[in-house]
Amino acid sequence: MTTDTELIRLSAAASMLLDSIRRAGGHPLIVGGAVRDALLGVAPKDIDVEVHGDTDTAVLLTEIAKVGTVRERGRSFAILAAQVNGEDFDVSLARHGEENASERIATRLAEGEHTNISDAFAQRDLTINAIGWDPASGKLIDPFGGLRDLNAGVLRATSNAFGKDPLRVWRVVQFAGRFGFQVEDNTAATCRRIALQMQNQPEAVAQERIWMEWSKLLRVGKHWQAAAAALVATGAIMLLPELAATLTVPQDPTWHPEGNVFTHLTLSAQAAADSCTHGGITGDDREVAVLGALLHDLGKVTHTQIGSVTGRITSYGHAQAGVGQARAFLHRIGAPSHIIRRVVPVVAEHMSHVSVHGTPSRPTLRRLARRLAPASLTDWARVVDADSAGRGSGAKASPAATWLSVAAADPIGTAPILKGRHLISLGLEPGPEFAGILHKALQAQDEGAFADEEGALVWARANLN
């Protein structure tokens, strides 16, 4: 057993929490992601504590409440959500996979006596997440070879308990994309069995939980080829039929020497993630960029044709055709509506630059920006960049920067200048004809007929007369 007394630098709040657990008769171990990340050389963001020893929830609640606030959550896993000096912690009683497990929690950490800890750690999903650290002694507790798998870059199920929560299939994909790890063969086979069950019972996992895993992958994932490999290996790809269909769709090797559509989408998602990482793009903006890149060519499934004589591969109209597939995919993974509203128009418009040679006109750009809303031109540009980059040896320069430079120099923008109140001020009675007048005014604005309110009124008087 490895000893490292400095593995995790505990804050004062964390130390206070651990002391309160000891006063309750518990033996606290730091577990899960905090230990994993520390071993990978990454400072842990969240501290999860698993309590071993002779104690119970009521006593823990009392003692923790003396140093902060605490509440119970999670019927199945008896988790205490604690906050000490503004820091949040999850505290759980060790789980042993049995209904009467709480009667058996009496663990000592003397050398060689780890049976109950092993039983509790066996309930964790992957070996890399089943490593504990005892802050009192500095000892690492690793009953399932998690450190070995961490060093080898392997995702391996800890025990047969893996299948108790089907969400774990999505967690495997998420960890593959975050760390670039490969899925161990037996674990992949277990995931495929679970995925098959989920195909028949899609309600087995709440969409909110699925989105939590996807959001983590989108926000911090840096290894999209590993994520794609995990999607296929685990069978999770079959839970995403819109994406799975791209595995067999060919592309013109002149423009896409990288291979089929799935390969292109994977490389595009990687390019978008890399660009966001380098540019400091985070949160919703990164989710939109990577999702847009991953989904932008779903329409090629239905709109790819191979010429009977020339053998040329084309996919005319695939951008608009992909809207329905993109929306269906986003609903499957539980994406929130504000993300869907931004991703879908980017998918629909990702080819809008193709018919424009050189620098776009301001009217062209304004109309595009209006079609994209609530997505922005920047959202669109990130996906166009990723599409251009995600082609292997066929990667090419993106035209998006030119479009953004025109937008930056446009003093008018896309907001309508002439509005209904202006028409009323000119003596018109509100009515159905307003819509037609305002539509023509917006077209004139886009074409540069006026650039401010005064010019809009001049245009209106001339055209109304």
Main beta sheet: 7 strands, mixed
Integer-rounded radius of gyration: 28 Å
Q: What's the total count of β strands?
A: 11
Q: pLDDT below 50 for ≥5 consecutive residues: which ranges? A: 98-115
Q: Which secondary-structure class do the elements indicate?
A: alpha+beta
Shape: globular
State the gist of this model.
This protein is an alpha+beta fold and 465 residues long.
Question: Can you put this structure into words, describing what you see?
Answer:
This protein is α+β, with helices and mostly antiparallel strands and 465 residues long. Among the domains are: 12-151, Beta Polymerase, domain 2 (2-Layer Sandwich), CATH 3.30.460; 274-408, no CATH class; 420-464, no CATH class. It is 49% helix and 9% strand. It contains 21 helices and eleven strands. Strands 3-4-5-2-1-6-7 form a seven-stranded mixed sheet. The chain has a two-stranded parallel sheet with strand order 8-9. Helix 12 (283-295) packs across helix 15 (337-349). The N and C termini lie far apart (89 Å).
Q: What labels would you give this structure?
A:
seven-stranded mixed β-sheet; Beta Polymerase, domain 2; 11 strands; 465 residues; two-stranded parallel sheet; alpha+beta
What does the secondary structure layout of this molecule look like, with pairings?
Elements: H1 12-23, E1 26-31, H2 33-39, E2 47-53, H3 57-64, E3 69-73, E4 79-84, E5 87-93, H4 115-121, E6 132-133, E7 140-141, H5 146-152, E8 154-155, H6 168-179, E9 182-183, H7 185-200, H8 207-220, H9 224-234, H10 241-244, H11 261-279, H12 283-295, H13 300-303, E10 305-306, E11 313-314, H14 318-332, H15 337-349, H16 362-372, H17 377-389, H18 400-408, H19 420-425, H20 433-446, H21 453-464
Parallel strand pairs: 2-5, 8-9
Antiparallel strand pairs: 1-2, 1-6, 3-4, 4-5, 6-7, 10-11
Helix pairs in contact: 6-8, 6-9, 11-12, 11-17, 12-15, 12-17, 14-15, 17-18
